[in-house]
Design goal:
- α3 (25-35) packs across α5 (49-56).
- Helices cover 45% and strands 0% of the residues.
- The chain has helices spanning 2-8, 18-23, 25-35, 42-46, 49-56, 59-63, 102-116.
- This is Sulfotransferase.
- Keywords: Transferase.
């Protein structure tokens, strides 16, 4: 389990929460780059390179790439029957409420509690 490995050696595994990154992506892009050994230089930060990376990698930019628009099917994986556009909805925190009923959400929450109880993962602010 990655959580156990993280607890044993936190410098080798990075956990990021979508909701947190979505709210303020700049520090997390910097953190990810540093974690991967490619931190931004002071000059790059001054020139706005971090902001440019955030923009290029944003949900909106990726969703609107030609390859992800419409009903294009991946040719490299013949078993996949979903168009690339199916992997993008709105990218909004909390949008799950438009797709899951309260009962479904409660079931998922229950499964998470059951599977991860006593792990510390659900209580840890990563």
């Amino acid at each position: 389990m990655y959580w156990k490995a993280y607890q044993e050696n936190p410098d080798h595994i990075l956990f990021l929460k979508y909701e947190t990154m979505r709210a303020d992506p700049l520090p997390y892009v910097k953190r990810l780059a540093q974690f991967m050994g490619y931190g931004f230089t002071a000059e790059e930060e001054k020139k706005g390179v971090v902001e440019k990376v955030v923009n290029v990698c944003s949900f909106e930019t990726l969703k609107n790439l030609e390859v992800n628009e419409g009903e294009k099917i991946r040719d490299d994986i013949p078993r996949v029957v979903y168009p690339n556009s199916a992997y993008f909805r709105k990218g909004k925190v909390g949008d799950w409420q438009n797709y899951l009923t309260q009962e479904m959400a409660a079931r998922i929450d229950g499964l998470m509690q059951e599977k991860f109880k006593c792990s510390g993962l659900l209580e840890h602010d990563i």
